[in-house]
Amino acid sequence: MRYPDDVRYTAEHEWARLENGIITIGVTSYATEQLGDVVFVELPEIGVRLEALKTFGVIEAVKTVSDLFAPVSGEVLERNGALSDNPALVNQDPFGEGWILRLRPSDPGEYAKLMSNVDYERHVEEQHA
Fold first, then answer.
1. Is residue 1 part of a domain?
2. Residue 43 · residue 101 · CB < 8 Å
3. Domain count for the chain
4. Residue 56: helix, strand or coil by DSSP?
């Protein structure tokens, strides 16, 4: 499994992509594989402030329900409205159309502390060792 090198990762299997000062957040392809078919995603309202590594929502799949963790602190600017009609986008295109939310980071230094794709790949391999 390959992980894009233009995003950073958390140990909880979320990813973050920084573009023009805005961070897009989603869950990794590894996470979607472990979850199975996603049937529902519960997201915070626009304007809510998230704290790094704290829960901000829930992702429900056929197999299980899992908390979503914020990779960085910041204010929610946008939620992926397409997920309410088609939550399976998270499975089909986790690093693209299946993104979860966008936020304005309150501490840009937090992004730099997230794992690179190489570090994340090693983290996933260690979980299976």
1. no
2. yes
3. 1
4. strand
